[in-house]
Amino acid sequence: MPDLDLIDRKIAAELMRDATLPIAQIADRVGLSQTPCWKRIQKLEAAGVLTGRVALADPEKLGFGTLVFVEIEAPNHSVQWREEFATAVAQLPQIMEVHRMAGRMDYLLRVAVPDMAAFDLFYKRLTDAVPIKNVTSHFAMERIRFTTAYPVDTRNR
Question: Per-residue DSSP letters for 108-137?
Answer without folding.
Answer: EEEEEESSHHHHHHHHHHHHHHS--SEEEE
